[in-house]
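Q: Sequence in, structure out?
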Amino acid sequence: MVPVVQRLRGGEGDVSRTDRVESKVIIPPAKMFEVFGERDSVLRRVEELVECEVVVRGNEVVLSGEELAVERAEAVFEGLLELVEGGHHPDRETAERLYRMSEGGGAAGEKGGHEVLSDVILTYRGRRVAPKTRNQKRYTDAIRKSQVTFGVGPAGTGKTYLAVALAVDALNRGEVNRIILTRPAVEAGESLGFLPGDMMAKVDPYFRPLYDALYEMIDPAKFQSHLERGVVEIAPLAFMRGRTLNDAFIILDEAQNTTPQQMKMFLTRLGFGSRMVITGDLTQVDLPSGKNSGLSDARKILGDVEGVAFVGLRRDDIVRSDLVMRIVDAYEGAETESGPEGAEKKDR
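A: Exactly. Output:
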């Protein structure tokens, strides 16, 4: 589908009007309901987002306004149609994601929004897990291609969630025999010693985000069975010492709170037929003052090692509430204003 574009300009000497472009996007009649959404909910969201006029005439969407705004609106409607033709069901959030990815048009060779959003990792109870930004797509592609992948970025960018989804998918496909989830038991303002129970009971709250992700992708009864049989293992990083992990999908979460020695120990557990994903946020280091982060150290040491991939996720990859993005911006601004001390903490 190629939109017809006609350029309309203001009259000579008329400085009150800017150059305008008109574009016509043809939607096949059979696809209109899915592209526009139930009760035109998707269409209404696009109209709220784009900065040009949107007029629907039959199965034609006529866009008029400044050239860049029209091009972005074209990209959104074309992306919606591509997704529908691929068997997907766009919603209002889909329109928002396509609009964000249309900014700047994308670099040469960069995947279109529909290619990003159509990469479904797995489906559970009708819910599809898929990357929602170009960087998330790079991240999932890197995990599929590399034995060891580092995902570094702020909270809410899907680092852990997408890694868990790919782990479950690999297990379902028989590519691995087990999933191992680990993280350093670093205390963030609370003491493990005051929590009730044995060591596993004490660290259980630290693994709650991983449990939450797994419960969204595996039937609870099956998940419990996997835990009992060791198909899914959740353990503190200290429990990894001395082991060789074969035929496993291993995820190290909150890796910014590892020491360089712990990171080296963890990475050297990699066995045959295994993949590792290491996630972390270097702006949330909870190590004692003066201790270097193993995640920061690994980025410097392993950047050129074949088979190891580093993917950076940014604030615009946050897929939680827009308020989370504003909170991240506020904290980053405060750290910048705090001078060298704030900058030093951020880089740890």
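Residues 1-17, 188-192, 343-348 have pLDDT under 50 and may be disordered.
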